């Protein structure tokens, strides 16, 4: 079960590394515009905000990687904390930005959290 938990956390961490890269590097590029369904003018005006947002996704990824590598007993607490952060961020994003975030961010975090708690 430990391997499955860590695989789920690793997968979610990789998703957040990708989101960080999209927001910090690709926001104004065609893939960023298409992914976030924004136009070039808005992307230029909001690029610094997107980079800040990307940084937070990077912090979530770092915390998830840390929770995989940490020793007992702190790894359990770290997993629960960072997965809960991802879950809350995903729910908030789905309510305020795009329903797609519910499936890309919140649902994987919920599944992983359940795996950690059982």
Summarize the topology.
Blueprint: H1 2-24, H2 30-36, H3 40-69, H4 74-96, H5 100-117
Helix pairs in contact: 1-3, 1-5, 3-4, 4-5
What this model shows, in words?
The protein has 118 residues and is mostly helical. It has one domain (2-117). The chain has helices at residues 2-24, 30-36, 40-69, 74-96, 100-117. It is elongated, with a radius of gyration of 15 Å. 25% of the residues are buried.
SSE run: HHHHH
Sheet with most strands: none
Helix content: over 70%
Poorly predicted spans: none
Q: Tell me the overall shape.
A: elongated
In angstroms, what is the radius of gyration? Answer: 15 Å
Overview features:
118 residues, mainly alpha, 5 helices, elongated
What is the structure about, briefly put?
This protein is mainly alpha-helical and 118 residues long.
């Amino acid at each position: 079960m430990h391997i499955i938990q860590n695989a789920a956390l690793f997968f979610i961490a990789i998703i957040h590394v990708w989101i960080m890269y999209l927001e910090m590097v690709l926001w104004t590029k065609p893939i960023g515009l298409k992914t976030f369904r924004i136009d070039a003018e808005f992307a230029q005006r909001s690029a610094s905000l997107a980079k800040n947002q990307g940084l937070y996704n990077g912090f979530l990824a770092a915390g998830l990687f840390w929770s995989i590598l940490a020793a007992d007993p702190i790894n359990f607490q770290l997993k629960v904390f960072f997965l809960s952060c991802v879950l809350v961020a995903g729910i908030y994003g789905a309510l305020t930005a795009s329903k797609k975030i519910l499936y890309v961010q919140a649902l994987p975090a919920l599944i992983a959290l359940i795996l950690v708690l059982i």
